[in-house]
Amino acid sequence: MKEYKYVEVKFEAKGVLFHSASEPKEIINKYAKEGYSYVGFIPTLIDAHGGFRRIDLIFEK
């Protein structure tokens, strides 16, 4: 049976732009070292303008 992990990434306002509070590439590399494969993401919070404010990265093992 496959195992899935969901890791939340938040995007915070920095002036008129948003940036990730944690670096998604670092998270993906960390889980790859643990034997997980990145399979996609789910938006979990979207602002009034359609911008992602929070996503869950999905990993599979």
UniProtKB/TrEMBL annotation:
Q: Which organism is it from?
A: Anaerosacchariphilus hominis
The protein in question is named DUF4177 domain-containing protein
**Top-level taxonomic group:** Bacteria
